[in-house]
Amino acid sequence: MKITKVEPLFLDKFLLVQVHTDEGIIGLGESGAWGFLEASGAAIEKFGRYLIGKDPMLIEHHWQYMYRFSHFRGAAIMGALSALDIALWDIAGKHFGVPAYALLGGKVRDRARVYYHVFGDTTDVLVKGIVDAKERGFTAVGHLTPFLDEERDVPYFKTHASKINDAIDTVGMYRDAVGPDVDLCIEIHRRMTPTEAVQLGLGIEKYTPYFFEDPVTPDNFDEMAYVASKINIPIATGERFTSIWEFEQLLSRNAVQYVRPDVCLVGGITGAKKIAALAEARHVGVVPHNPLSPVSTMACLQIAAGAPNFALQEYPIGEEIPPKSDMVDGSAEHDGEGFLMIPTRPGIGIDLKPGAKENVPMVPREVVTRLHKDGSVIDQ
Ligand SMILES: [Mg+2]
Fold this sequence. Notes:
- The chain is 38% helix and 16% strand.
- It has twelve helices and 14 strands.
- The longest helix is centred in the first third of the chain and has 22 residues, at 75-96.
- The protein is globular, with a radius of gyration of 20 Å.
């Protein structure tokens, strides 16, 4: 079998890739470099010039070749490499008539527990989102901030005391709304300094959050380790990282209790599988990051299927509504009890719908971020 065409596809706010072969098998993948999809698409085209004419089954060899041919990595390039790796696993599974995970040792579970996204710019909306998720059968919610998901054009200001105490009270409100029936994955989105993160972490411990995600910017592994050493709730981090080596830096410092590899950014199924194994060696759980399209969800489920230390899968809101439903055939199936069924279709289990390329236009992401009341940039 030979690769005949590599086609980046900008659909809605996603970058997918189709890898075509001379046997008629088409592999589908996705890039996770969501802030710079145009750059990632250019990298897919460049890698595509290498891949055309090659045997798609030599997945690890092509991974190494594309990763190591130049000095340059980073998110846009790793998103491209990841998209292509996922597409090659899709081809391999379709070639043998089995799901991709069957080629990685087989499945260890039939269903993957998920956390559902909850958003809101008021505490009422956020509490309602958690209660709605519980009523729909979900047993965990995430993307759940103790602050608010306010618009980026609203300047931010709170005193330190209000910032910490309001956040502690808000997490208490979430817990009161659903009792112990729903796990709360608390998402900080890098909004705090290490000392603020310790104060808040200690303050919400009594509400037993499942994890405390990205309390500080992940650039400094020692800072994350400092926060982890001072609080008694698990830290989840890793969604920005692009390699096994960054995860090793976190793990070797005991800075993380749930790793969050983005399958569409860490080198695809090949990279994520290795990160899961590194985490397994330290009894650390895997919670694949997944804010993307249903293609990413299905790629994540290949890891969830086979990793013994898989813990929870991020499940973005609205997979069932347009434009995603116009785009793909074969989205993950929710069992009504907070789990996604491990897919059984060959490959990663999802394909583009006929006409998707024409019917789902690109929605470019503009450069917009939030400012403090004093005019400086904050993280949100
Ligand atoms: Mg996150």
